[in-house]
Amino acid sequence: MSLLYEMNQKALALGVPISVHLDVTYRCNERCIHCYLDHDDHGEMTTPEIEDLLAQLADAGVFFLTLSGGEVFMRRDFFTILSHARRHLFNVKVKTNAAMIREPEAKQLRDLGVEQIQISVYSHRAEVHDAVTKLPGSHRRTIEAIRFLKSQGLKVVIANVLMGVNVDDHLGVMALARELQVPYTLDPTITPKMDGDTSLLDLRIAGEQLGQIFRQRELVGNVEEFCAPPTAPDESVMDGYPCSAGHTACYISPYGDVFPCVQFPLPCGNIRQQKFIDIWRTSAQFNEVRSIRARDLPVCSTCAHVGTCTRCPGLAYIEGNMRGPSSADCEKSFQRTGIPSANMLRGTTARPGPLVQIQPAPIS
Amino acid sequence: MILGGLITEKYISRSSAIAARLVGGEMMIMSAVDSTFFTLNEVATVIWQAADGQTSLKEIVHTRICSDFDVDLAQAQQDADQFVSELANHGILNVSPIPITGADSR
Amino acid sequence: MSASPSYAPLTTQESICIVIGGTRIAVRTTNLEFVRMLADRYIGFMASAENSDADLDVDIFDNSVSADPDEDLQVLRDGQEWVMRRGDFFARWNPATCRGHVRQAANPYAIDSVLRIIHSLVLARRGGFLLHAASAIRNGRAFLFMGVSGAGKTTISRFAPADANLLTDEISYVLAEQGSYLGCGTPFAGELARVGENLSAPMSTAFLLEKGPENRIEPISKALAIRALMRNILFFAHDSALVKRVFDSACKFANEVPVRRLIFAPDQRVWNIIG
């Protein structure tokens, strides 16, 4: 097993939060149609607050720090925050739309030794991308920034959120990424708004389209393997945790709220009231999340996909029950393999089986 | 390093082009240059933490390794030299014949 | 890392981590016998020494030197640090770095005292305190039984029914957390000489014990409640800043948690009115 995997296992055994995702602001220069955030500033952490938080995170054993938002460059002190983070020797990844990055910013990012920059690109066509971000010219500026960053030797990754409005362009984005010599990831997940408003879910691509995406060799590699029906789960699967949220990773909002994950908005504490390590270790909410294994999920533990589903406990929580199903992941597992999930078979969400073509009897 | 029969001193300091964290008594280090990932065991971590650019490797081995671990000076010195070389090849550690001052000593 | 040297440690410095109320204190020493003794004494309150909240280095000195545990305990502030002195030990503790050093005879009473003092200082910072009280958990809630020596703490502990978890019969641990209070088990045993259970539960009621002819719960004024708390809170130092902080904690506690007088006859029926 790789060294990194071993360190993760060690962190899990010791209860060390080696990964933290910190959103430094919810303000943004863009207004993406699928964004789940409230962009008004309700009192984001000040520079000294963030600096103190970074020191606490380093003491707690955090190694991987992802800085994101909103748009990180909306903060005038972002490079101050970044250099502080690097002084604490975090491995820093930045998520940004890069529309505000020019050569000087790219150079500074390189000098600070940022590990990776992740940038969202919604289409190879400017008009489609700008229609998502609602910022005219954002596509041009973002692509230009990618070139600046690459020329400085920085690692860049393009992330493409797949929605109904841009699903036809994903191969175009892939080609663009290849041309820019940048790795490309694709994600059809739409997160509901943090306040619970689920209207964003209408932006999701249709199930059948998802099925087609899953059968594209350029995206998934070995299609037969990727789309194979699940094999029977064994005991070790039932002992498993759904993901690292609350175990070796967590999320901190610009207001100091600590959640297991950005997609799991269960408030576990606020660093303006308690020390991070106290929240991490003693929060009742964290301890509840940590207690949940596959066997503790009433519906999902009975599902054929229990060992292979991408079930996000955060999306399940948003849906109403952190021990319940995540219907977005039920859909993914179904579209991928053709096998409906236990949740889908339960009745109210039952879907009709595939239509069977009746062949006429041969004429004797 | 041996020059004309004299064993010269070696001073080591930690590079700043890294990400590093102590977890469970062992160091996790990732090069910011090429993302190579290292883990240092207890002995290696002692050497790493003592690499302030001001203390010679010989002194580190003598006062921090041989004092606390069951190993003779010659073996420890040899192992330390090899270990330091490997980290230096990856740009994680700076090695110099004279004390190192400046930003890279932190 | 292929070239990482690997050797056996010479002076095996053992560490043992004792966790009470969620605070992990790693005790490090080269005296193996002492470690074994600690492991026995604090069974049930052990945790991994990785990422401890505080570190104590302990040097054991020769027992033949006069080591009088009955000599008065002296706890004084020395700049940033606290200094603790008694016939059988000398200790320094830095609350900012959470590091300390103890020189003591090879008996468990010294380390017991040091741990109690450190926990009491740690608790004070967060609005909690150690109390001369027995405590127990029943139906998921914690109950405190305050009183000085002879008030009946051990008696009431002895009568605790099977469905109650005894946290301690002597020194109770009251942790303040976001405006509410938890009662936590401790390994500090009194006459019952029984190590409490390593559990915690939200505080239901604090009782002021009084022996009487019948079992009865009576209300008491807030002023009396605070006075009773202050009388029973463990104080180690007459440091005015610390005393003020503890007084504030006692007032906040009395505002949040019902404090009542519990008059009881020395038999198990008193437990019928508790929990």
Describe the structure concisely for a colleague.
The complex is a heterotrimer of chains A (364), B (106) and C (275). Chain B has 106 residues and is of the alpha+beta class.
Task: Walk me through what this model shows.
- The complex is a heterotrimer of chains A (364), B (106) and C (275).
- The longest helix of chain A is centred in the middle third of the chain and has 14 residues.
- With 364 residues, chain A is α/β, with parallel strands linked by helices.
- Chain A contains 15 helices and nine strands.
- In chain A, strands 6-5-4-3-2-1-7-8-9 form a nine-stranded mixed β-sheet, with helices on one face.
- In chain A, helix 2 packs parallel to helix 3.
- Chain A starts with a helix and ends in a 27-residue tail after the last helix.
- The C terminus of chain A is likely disordered.
- In chain A, 36% of the residues lie in helices and 12% in strands.
- The mean pLDDT of chain B is 86.
- In chain B, a hairpin with a 2-residue loop joins strand 1 and strand 2.
- In chain B, helix 1 packs across helix 2 and helix 2 packs across helix 3.
- Chain B is α+β, with helices and mostly antiparallel strands and 106 residues long.
- Chain B contains three helices and eight strands; from the N terminus they run E-E-E-E-E-E-H-E-H-H-E.
- Chain B has one domain: Outer Surface Protein A, domain 3 (Alpha-Beta Complex), CATH 3.90.930.60.
- Chain C has 275 residues and is an alpha+beta fold.
- Chain C folds into two domains: 111 residues, no CATH class; 145 residues, Rossmann fold (3-Layer(aba) Sandwich).
- In chain C, helix 4 packs across helix 5.
- At the A-B interface, helix 1 of A face strand 4, strand 5 and strand 6 of B.
